[in-house]
Amino acid sequence: MVIVAGGMGLVPLRPVVNHVLKHRKRFGRVALLYGARTPRDILFKKEVEKWRGKFDMQVLVTVDQSDASWHGNVGVVTTLLSNAEFDAARTSGIVCGPEVMMRFAVRELENRGISDDRVFLSMERNMQCAIGFCGHCQFGPRFVCVDGPVFRFDRIRNFFNVREA
What predicted TM-score, i.e. pTM, was given to this entire model? Predict the structure, then answer.
C-alpha cells in the first residue's frame, strides 16, 4: 500500500495508517509519503516520528519550503514516489490532499505501474452540507458527500481532469 498525503490530507488518512499498523500482518510493504508546506505545518509530528521508528513501514516526509531547522527532503510530495518501495502489481494507493497534488500523485502512481482500479482518492475537500442538498461537492455525476468521499480512480477518471466552469 502506498499512502500519499499532502498538507491537511493527512487528517483523513491518519485512521488508514493506524488501521494498517494495527493489522500489520494483513499488509505487505507499506509506504507513507507525506508533504507539508513548511516544517511548522507538519501535522501529527510525534505520530509521524513514531510511525517512522517502527521500521515496518517506509515513511518519507518532505516540505515545499525548508527553514534552518529542517534537514529532510524539500520538494512536493509527489517527488517522493520515486523513492517509495513497492511491487506495483500487488499495490494499492490512497491519496488525499490539494486537488493539484492529487492529479500529479495519480499520474505518478500510474507511471509506477499501479492500475487505476487500485488507486483511491479521498475527495471530501468540497463538502459543506453532507446530505447532497447544496451541490458544492458535485463531482461529475456524483456527490462527494453522498457517493464518497472515497472514490476508486477508474470510476472517476473521465471527469477528474475536467475543470469547473
Answer: 0.93
